[in-house]
Structures are given as structure tokens and as C-alpha cells.
Amino acid sequence: MKEINASDFEKEVLNGGKVILDFYSTECPPCEALASKFEDLSHLYGNDIRFLKIFRQGNRELAEKLGVKSSPTLLFFANGNEIAGRLGGGIKKGEIISRLDSMLPAKRVAEIKSGIKRTVSDFDVIILGAGPGGLTAGLYLCQAKINTVLVDISLPGGHVSTTHEVSNYPGFIDPQPGYLLSHNMSEQTKLCGTVYKVAVDITSVDLIRKEVVIDEFETVRAKKIIIATGTTPNLTGAPGEKEFKGKGISYCATCDAKYYEGKDVVVIGGGNSAVEESEYITRFAAKLTMVHQFDKLTANKQAQEKILKNPKVSILFESEPRSFTREGEKIITTVENLKTRSVSRLESDGIFIFIGFRPNLGMIKDKLELDQWGYIRTNEDMQTNIPGVYAVGDVISKKYRQITTAVADGTIAAMAIAKELD
């Protein structure tokens, strides 16, 4: 692995054969998460592909010329031509391997893979998930001198990191940008001593044996496991939704409704969450239009009666969103009437989507006790039905899902575990 500057670009990259180039920055958590993966892969593929790093902040002109707009960004070259597609942000090891494999003959790839050695690491506690609940558990455990590893398929922060502002977290007079609050939580836990393995692929999870395999060849084992994998909002799948997530499209009224004081809002959905959250949003918004796929609301009767009497609310029944676009400061929701097939446009300042959440338990095959909605049941110490396995945060069965409740769950689980391991 070699560090280069812009003056070396032509010689080292354009005339360097097969190359992977990492544009990195300082004070960049995703860059830190990538560094160890990049170095590990350089030992495996380094005889066939050159691994180069370049400091983005010190080589701005080259970065701008190449269209590199974020750190880290990985570029792949063969004989002076960029190939394979760029990678950026929270880059997983598997994503890099896939690109590298595509640059080599299949026979050579097989030879490289045959030389990979499996590794095993032992800890006291594995935390699956680096949202507020997992980070808090990690903080309390490391302060109790308990050897803990935090594993996440993404970068630390959970939903908080994509929230515009958080104004109801205790201890902050001014609203905090979500990314900054989650960053500070993460740094506090990391500096305490919790080991991080983030932006990884989770190959398998065995709750009975307390083993987690990441990136196919690395196994981490522990005496206890905390599941803090959170939830994922159900998506409409309409074009523009992913692009405007956190930039006009929200999935949390408590988090973001306050920013639409006196403005127009569109809500997608008609179940309990949509109706109850719409009632809350109208405390701030001047006008709210609900878009619901059925001919009547599916929320409980009391909630329906209340929202139907609200003068700020209008409802488009038997309709679904087909796309989200931006025109100036406004977001345009293209809506199709499922009965007449007519298409209309809704202009608003923001959109809230409430078509349900699902707990992130896809990688877990063991028989956890779940409630009727698929969330994990726990006792007062956050223990599940499987001995030595705890669960915290949004993934568990409970009434309210907020940053503060996740933090409380993480605290309880960590203290219970610390007492058991003492």
C-alpha cells in the first residue's frame, strides 16, 4: 500500500496497470472504518492490484477534476481507464472484494481466496447494532471493564444519523443535528475502549453458541450477546424516495414535525401510525393531505373519528404515490388514483411516510420469542428467552420507540450483564 499525491497520479495510476485508489480525509469516521479493510485486502490482492491512498483535502484540485465529492471514495483503474464502479461512504469489505475479483481472472481469484485464513476473536459481549441502544450498552460495558465488540452492517448512529435535527434529547439547549449527536455518542463509546467492527457483512449469527461470522472469514465469540439491530421503515418504492430521505421525506413525526410550522405536508398511509402521527403533525402544519391506498382508513375507530374531524386534514382514498420530485423548495408527489387511474400532483413542503416498520432480524435464525408484530419480547433486564441473549432499542416489543428509550434499554442490559459477569 502506497500514499501518493496529485503529481504522482499519471505515473502511479494512469500508467500503473491495475489500481485501487482511496481518496480519504482526516476526522472522517467512514474513512477510519475503511482503513483496516483496505490494508487487509492489500495483503491479499497486492501482488496483482496496486493499493494506493491519496489525501483528498491536500489534493482538492485532482479530486474535483475526477468528480470525487465525498470521503472515502474508492476508484478502480485498469491501464489508465476507470472501471468497476466507484464506492463511497460506509464501504463494506464484500463490496470491495467484488470489484477486485472482477479485475482478475477467475483462476487467480480462486487462488487468492484459498489463501485466506479464518480468524477467531473472543470477547465478553457482542453488541449487534450501533444505534443509540447499542452504543449506550457499549459505553456502560467498557466503563465496567468488560471486553466488548460492537458489530454493525452500517456505520454507527442508526436512524439518528439521518435525522435532520433532534431537539428533545436531554442535555442540549439547542437542537442538535442528528449526524452530530450520533457521532458524539459513537466517539464516546469508541474512546472508552469498545472494539468496533462496522460497515461489515454479517455472514451468520448463532445466538446459542454466541458466535457471529462477519465478512465470511472472521468469527467473533462471546459470553453474552445484545441484539440492537433496530428497525427499517417500509418504503413505498416510488422513484425519488431514497434520494429525498432526510431531505424532505421523513419517517418520524416526533423528530421532524416541528420543522413544518405553518407549512403544507403530505402523509403516506392510513393505518394507526399514519393517523396518530398525522394528528400530531397538525399541531404544526397548516395543511395535511393523507394518501391512502384503501377506500377507508385502517386505524382504530377512535383515531379515525378524531382525524376525520380535523379541519387541517384532507384524504385521498384509493391512491398511491408514484414518484417524488423537487421543484425549488417544494416536493412534488405524483399520485395515482387506483380506481380511475387518473394522476395528480401534490405540492408540499415535506412528506411523512408511515406504512409500517419491520424489525431487523433477517440475519437471526434462532427461535427468539416475538410479539404478534415480530418484535423481540424481553424481561425487565432486557433478557430474551435465549439464555445470555439480550435485546434493546427499537427491535424489542414496547410502546414507545425514541432515542431516549433506546438509551435506557442499553443502560439496563449493560448493567444486568455487568452484574452477571462480575
Polypeptide structure, described:
The chain has helices at 9-14, 29-45, 60-66, 93-102, 106-114, 132-143, 178-192, 241-244, 253-256, 272-281, 301-308, 403-421, and strands spanning 2-4, 18-24, 50-55, 73-78, 81-88, 119-122, 125-128, 148-152, 165-166, 176-177, 195-198, 202-206, 211-214, 218-221, 224-227, 231-233, 249-250, 264-268, 287-291, 313-316, 319-327, 330-337, 343-348, 350-353, 357-359, 389-391. Helix 6 (132-143) packs parallel to helix 7 (178-192) and helix 6 (132-143) runs parallel beside helix 12 (403-421). The protein is of the alpha/beta class and 422 residues long. It starts with a strand and ends with a helix. It folds into 3 domains: 2-114, Glutaredoxin (3-Layer(aba) Sandwich); 120-232 and 358-421, 3-Layer(bba) Sandwich (FAD/NAD(P)-binding domain); 241-353, 3-Layer(bba) Sandwich (FAD/NAD(P)-binding domain), CATH 3.50.50. Strand 18 (264-268), helix 10 (272-281) and strand 19 form a beta-alpha-beta unit. The radius of gyration is 24 Å and the shape is globular. The protein is 29% helix and 28% strand.
CATH architecture label name of the largest domain? 3-Layer(bba) Sandwich
> Beta fraction of the residues?
25-35%
Looking at CATH, the homologous superfamily of the largest domain is FAD/NAD(P)-binding domain
Helix content: 25-40%
Class of the largest domain in CATH?
Answer: Alpha Beta
Order of strands across the main sheet: 1-3-2-4-5
Overall outline:
globular
Question: Summarize this, please?
Answer:
The chain is an alpha/beta fold and 422 residues long.
